[in-house]
Amino acid sequence: MIKTLVTIIVLCVGSAALAQAPSKGTVAAWAAKPASMWSAPTHMMLLDATRAGKRIVAVGEHGIVLLSDDDGMTYRQARTVPVSATLSAVTFTDDRRGWVVGQWGVILATRDGGETWEKQRMDIAVDQPLFSVHFSNEHDGIAVGLWSLMLQTRDGGKTWTRTALPKPPGGGKADRNLYHVFADSKGALYISAEQGTVLKSTDAGANWDYLATGGKGSLWSGVATADGRIVVGGLLGSLFQSGDGGATWHPLKAETKSSITNLVATGKGLMAVGLDGLVMQQRADGAPFEIAQRPDRAALTAVVIDAGGKPILFSKDGLLAGRRER
After folding, report:
1. How many other C-beta atoms can be found within 10 angstroms of the C-beta atom of residue 17?
2. pTM listed for this prediction
3. Is 9 helix (H, G, I), strand (E, B) or coil?
């Protein structure tokens, strides 16, 4: 039985057990169909969320894309999404242009703030999902995923080219799962990955170096803070920080064993969410972490900060924190 992207990210099941799907099976055929309109979309599994200008855009299972134009108070589905595959990550370069990636290596693009989407890529021959996507501008983008899958574009996604990564230090195949790609203020690219590893490129993704954080577990997320730190986190609450662009790392004591699924910058600090209802915040470098555990122990997958500085939470069970749908 195939373990989906949802299982990998939300339930933290080892993705090494993933198997190739039937190329013409009913699952692949269904995933390639346009997304349905659902009666209660905010109760469906949501895996990532971001802002497109003032709009909030969230994505998740069955090709669902949710839009909010009132700072997260109400949500509606996008008008047109050409696939029903699980969507794992979303990014925007401005209030109009955005991209989504997910299961079956799908890549979708929008030019109208997420109202309508067009398919740029999908490979139903094998379910090799993409976990993350980042665009430096409206032309240059990178998407990463299972078994060192890396795709890059220089034309806004009209064409995507596979990048072959070098072998990791110590030998072996370049087959580590790449979970989250992000950039710092200087334009360097980082990817949080398996086995406590971070990949870095200083030439727009042409060449990559493997950076060892000192950890051993999978790093599900990463962020560059406003004060220049690089922070990555993941399995069993592991957190590592670098103040010199990844040259050296040291662990952060978060006092939690709940796996971290998403990190976001908040002013000079950062916020993290994770499994078991984990919500944690650090207000500045060196400050202690403020940790809260939701009573419902929800598997949190993403967070967006509202205009008042409060978190809007997304989870395996949909939207949380009392937001309503229409």
Report:
1. 11
2. 0.91
3. helix
Q: Which two tokens stand for residue 14?
A: 């080892």
Residue-wise pLDDT tens digits, 46-57: 999 999 999 999
Burial 108-120 (b: 16+ CB within 10 A, else e): bbbeebbebbeeb
Contact 100, 113 (CB under 8 A): no
Element (H, E) at 29: helix 26-31
CATH 3.40.50.11540 fits 165-321, yes or no: no
What per-residue confidence (pLDDT) applies to 174?
85
Helix (DSSP H) and strand (DSSP E) numbers for the chain: 2, 27
* Cα dihedral sign, 120-68-6-141: positive
Domain borders along the chain are 45-164, 165-321
pLDDT tens for 304-323 read 999 999 999 999 999 985 44
User: What is residue 163's predicted lDDT score, i.e. its pLDDT?
Assistant: 96
Fold match, 45-164 / 165-321: no
- Quote the distance between the C-alpha of residue 229 and its chain's center: 19
45-164 CATH fold: Neuraminidase (2.120.10)
User: In angstroms, how far is CA 180 from the centroid of its own chain?
Assistant: 5
Tokens of 238: 């592991």
Quote the DSSP letter at residue 259: P
pLDDT digits (tens, 9 = 90+) for 123-147: 988 889 999 999 999 999 999 999 9
Dig out the tokens for 298 from the structure.
């929800």
Q: Which of 160, 201, 202, 195 is nearest to 178 (CA)?
A: 195
Amino acid (one-letter) located at 306: D
Q: What is the rounded distance in angstroms from the CA atom of residue 285 to the CA atom of residue 78?
A: 38
